[in-house]
Amino acid sequence: MGRRYRKKRRNNRTFRTCDEDKDIVYLNSWLSKQGMRRNDKLRLAIFNDTGRGVLTKRKILAGEELMNLPLNSTINVTTILMDIQFCNIFLENTKSCLQEYKQKLSFQSLMAFYLTFLKVQNLESKWGVYLGSLPSNYTVPYFLPNEVLCNIHDDISAVISKQKHVVNTSYHIFDEILKSNICRNYNVKQLRDSFTMSLYEWAYFTVNTRCVYMDLTKVIDLKNIEKSILSLICDNTKISLCPYLDMINHSPSAKNETKLMLSRDFNLVNVSNLNQDIFSDVRFSIYTKNNFDPYTQVFICYGDSHNLKLITEYGFFLPNNDLDYYLFTFEDIEEFLKSIGRRLSQDQISFIYSHGLNRNLYIDMKGLSYNLYGLLMVVKYYYNQTMDVSRLLYSAAICSNNKDLNSIVAPLVSEKLRKIKEKLSKLNCVENSAILDNCIALMCQYVKILENFNKC
Fold this sequence. Notes:
Elements: H1 2-11, E1 15-17, H2 22-34, E2 37-38, E3 42-47, E4 51-56, E5 65-70, H3 77-82, H4 84-91, H5 97-100, H6 107-119, H7 128-132, H8 146-149, H9 154-179, H10 186-194, H11 197-210, E6 212-213, E7 220-221, E8 239-240, E9 249-250, E10 256-262, E11 269-270, E12 282-288, E13 296-300, H12 307-314, E14 326-328, H13 330-339, H14 346-354, E15 361-364, E16 367-368, H15 370-381, H16 389-393, H17 403-427, H18 434-455
Parallel strand pairs: 7-11, 9-13
Antiparallel strand pairs: 1-3, 2-5, 3-4, 4-13, 5-12, 6-8, 10-12, 14-15, 15-16
Helix pairs in contact: 6-11, 15-17, 17-18
């Protein structure tokens, strides 16, 4: 009976281990040679609901280290700066790249460009095995065909539009730099011949979906960077690609902590004096603060994120996400009020802006956001001599359920609902894909939030 039970339980498992898969065997062997230390309870697996992730074969307790990587086995700002061939793309150039493109690029864009440089080298690069283990495509809505984009929600379209602007702008800058490069290095020439938008998009979303936060300001001095390619960067450099760690999936209930471990006292290193030996004693570690039962998936938390961010940045949807909300712009509210004859006066608008009530206007499963509630109070009570709106904003009354305020925006909510459902009906005629399924799931979540509000 016991044997039959164990066999049945194995057959009902929602995963299959994949450490025996060829690319994972190569990856594990490579990581071992790099000096990675991994909790010996962990295995890579394919899960029915999340795809590839990390499984524990024995119970893991809060406080256990999940993995520990040498800094030199992660792709971070120091990796890029120490790659002389890559830096020479910018420095051996007919253009004065450091001046012409000063602070024109995000660090994520530079990381993506560096990945394209490594990718075209294939297994000749130190990172070839790691790059070979990465997905060949991603499920973010950025990759939806144009004929579908017109029917997804405006919130999703707005994020895609911003992403396309960043990707297109940075791609053309890198393309110009490659074309004006005079370096004779074979790898640089290979990148110049192979650099395409599709390759760059793959690299950009590899970084976008898989990077982790890593602050290296305790080991490198990032103040004097005028003669470094970091002068091209307009933001910070606190992201890194960490092999194996980037295969652990997200859960909002997961708690974890990362540490940069220094085995000796460290003086800040100038970016012009970097070399591999300096960081040989620096390691990056991640600990869990959760318990995980045997034969369950191990999770970390990517941060508190609503589903709009999760699907557009990472390519997955999280059911029953309490952080989801339906966002309105101030212009939405203002135009709607005009349409029902409740035009805001200049005094009301000034009051709204001075109190920040023009931002964070949304409805979630709990109802109106604080700011939307406050804005509607201004609409209804601003000219009521018996009401002190400023006082009401900071009183307990703001948290109460006011059906009179809800009723003001009820027609707007109904109109938004109608438009979402109309788009959803059109999407039902489109061939299914994981990307589209995520968008539809989010739009259905919006319907659920707005319908819940209408019932209150």
